[in-house]
Each structure stands twice: as structure tokens, then as C-alpha cells.
Specification:
- There is one protein chain.
- This protein is mostly helical and 345 residues long.
- It has 11 helices and no strands.
């Protein structure tokens, strides 16, 4: 298979450099850099805050929130990576060895793989709790969740940093400079396809299938609850109403959690599927090279995805908001906020 020029570059003595490629207009570039810079601050600050909250407050240390901790850690890593990329864009001729450039380019994919696999794990957690509630506590616990998160990071590290070294596509990098962009100059196309299909698109498809089954089960539970008639005897009626109210509260709480995770899934699709599309398009159409304007927008989408995730956690979870107020010593006077267990768990 021929190698896509803008993704994989040229293994011969090339004189291509970043200066040879036309940049977007100055106004568009300023807007993109402003949004990306603002997103970077939110990525580092927001995800760092989520990590601190889950580590500091025991009420947030639930099985599902451990998966959220993994996603926040991956997004925080993306913020660090983006910072390094900005430094390299401002200093495109820094003396970086080819192996270092290869690893840096692969690192850009680290948050994508980690986020998709973590979303797959948290979707499996919700699937077990809704579809198989009687076996949930036997199969899932905080310890199991933490082991899954650690396993995801170990697998991703091996996939991102070890595998590319065995199948790299050469060492020619734009006159020995490491011009970091979505053009993955020395990564083999077979490895890119493995990452895109096996570690991003396949997990997203499995997540959609599981959520379809989850919503189907919840709808059946709601329909079953509404079809039950109230017993005639008063004592049985009171017991029934108490049980029904508890069941309704449980369904409401789980639906809110599922909706939050669906929002995170949508953000992940928004952030990374366009990137996957560009990678695959250039692999299967080597003669076509995506313009820098499109690449800049795609880069901005990935940053906005990681910036939006911690905002979703805080807006959708009362427990996160309570812990944020407690962390900063903020008290709400004359509030009747109860300590409801409606965390993302």
C-alpha cells in the first residue's frame, strides 16, 4: 500500500519543511489559537480539579467515578501534550532525534485510545448494573474498576510507545525537524489502521450497542412498573407505594447517569471521529492531502472534547458540585440541598 504523503511523509531525502506549506489566514489562525489556548486552560484546570476531587473526597470514590478518574487523567495528559506541541510549533527547528519525534507523534493518540477504552469500560459497568443487576456486585467493585483503569493505561502505553518502534516507517522528518501536526510522518499505515479501527471505532460501536440495550431494558422496567395495579388492602398499598417510590427513584438516578455518559460519548465522537476519518482517508487516498485549515479545526475539536468533559461532570452531578464548594470553602445560605446519592455512579 502506498504511503499517504501528509500522514506518513517521505522516506527519501526530502526537502519539504513546514515553511513550504501554506498556513490558514492570519485571522482564522488567531481565532483557532485563541480557542485552543482557552481550551488548554480548561483542560488542565478542569481535569486537574476532577482528579483532585475524586482523590480527596471518599464519597466520590465509586466504581464508575474511578472510570471518570481515568478519563480525566487522559484528558489532563492531552493538555500537557498540547502544551509541548505549542512549544514545538513556536520552535519548529528544535533538535529532536527521530525516535523522540516518533514517540511524541504517537503520544497525541494516547488520550483518544484511553478515552474510548475507558468509555467502553464505564458503559459495560452501566450495562451490568441495569441489565444484570443481581450479578452486578459480584462482577464489579471499586477494586475491579481501578484494576480495569490501570490495565487500560498499561495497554495503551504498550500500544502507543512500544509497538510503533517495531514497525516505524523510516526516520526522515522534514529536514530532521519534528513538525508536530496531524501529519504522522513516520508511522506505518498498518499501525494507524490498527489504532483507528481496533482502539477507537470498534469501542465506540460496542458502546452504542450496549446503550441501545440499556435504554431498551429501562423502557421495559418503566412499562412494567406502570402496568402494576395498586393492591386493595391499605397495608399492602403502603408497602407497595414505598417499594414503587424506591424503584422510581432508582430508575431516575440511573437514567440521569446514563444520560451523562451518553453526553460524554457524543463529545468523544465529536472530538475523535473526524480525526479518524482524516487518517483513513489519507491512507486509502494517498494522492490527496488534507489542508491545514481542516487539520486545525480537527485539532481544535479534540481539545474542546477534553475541555468539555470536566464541565459535564460538574454540571450533571450534584455530588461533584457539593465537593467543589467544600474544596473551596463555599457555603450556600438558606439552601435545602440534600446529600442525594446522584453521583456519576
Amino acid at each position: 500500500m502506498a504511503l499517504p504523503p501528509s500522514l506518513l511523509g517521505n522516506t527519501t531525502n526530502s526537502t519539504i519543511s513546514p515553511d513550504d506549506v501554506s498556513e490558514p489566514s492570519s485571522f482564522a489562525t488567531s481565532i483557532i489559537y485563541f480557542i485552543s489556548g482557552l481550551a488548554l486552560l480548561v483542560i488542565l484546570g478542569g481535569n486537574g480539579l476532577v482528579i483532585i476531587l475524586i482523590v480527596k473526597f471518599s464519597r466520590l470514590r465509586t466504581a464508575t467515578n474511578y472510570f471518570i478518574l481515568g478519563m480525566a487523567s487522559a484528558d489532563f495528559a492531552l493538555g500537557i501534550i498540547v502544551t509541548v506541541v505549542i512549544i514545538m510549533k513556536l520552535n519548529p527547528h528544535l533538535p529532536i532525534p527521530p525516535i523522540g519525534c516518533l514517540l511524541l507523534r504517537c503520544t497525541i493518540l494516547f488520550p483518544a485510545v484511553t478515552s474510548c477504552l475507558t468509555l467502553l469500560s464505564v458503559s459495560l459497568d452501566r450495562y451490568l448494573k441495569i441489565v444484570m443487576p443481581l450479578r452486578y456486585h459480584d462482577l464489579m467493585s471499586k477494586r475491579v474498576a481501578m484494576m480495569i483503569v490501570i490495565s487500560i493505561f498499561v495497554y495503551t502505553a504498550l500500544t502507543i510507545y512500544v509497538l510503533p518502534l517495531t514497525i516505524s516507517n523510516g526516520t526522515q522528518i522534514f529536514n530532521q525537524t519534528c513538525w508536530v501536526d496531524f501529519s504522522l510522518t513516520i508511522i506505518h499505515p498498518a499501525y494507524l489502521q490498527f489504532l483507528v479501527f481496533g482502539n477507537i471505532l470498534l469501542p465506540l460501536c460496542l458502546i452504542c450497542i450496549m446503550y441501545g440495550q440499556i435504554f431498551r431494558t429501562v423502557i421495559q422496567m418503566i412499562g412494567h412498573e406502570r402496568s402494576i395495579r395498586i393492591p386493595q388492602q391499605q397495608a399492602k398499598k403502603m408497602r407497595y407505594m414505598t417499594s414503587r417510590r424506591s424503584s422510581r427513584n432508582w430508575i431516575t438516578r440511573e437514567l440521569r447517569t446514563i444520560k451523562t455518559l451518553v453526553i460524554l460519548l457524543g463529545l468523544c465522537i465529536f472530538g475523535w471521529v473526524p480525526f479518524c476519518g482524516v487518517v483513513l482517508f489519507e491512507i486509502y487516498n494517498p494522492s490527496y492531502q488534507v489542508g491545514l485549515k481542516v487539520l486545525s479545526v480537527i485539532r481544535m475539536c479534540t481539545s474542546l472534547n477534553s475541555a468539555a468533559n470536566p464541565i459535564v461532570y460538574s454540571l450533571r452531578s450534584e455530588q461533584f458540585r457539593l465537593c467543589i464548594r467544600k474544596l473551596f470553602g463555599i457555603t450556600k445560605k438558606h439552601s435545602n440541598v440534600t446529600n442525594r446519592n446522584n453521583t456519576i455512579s
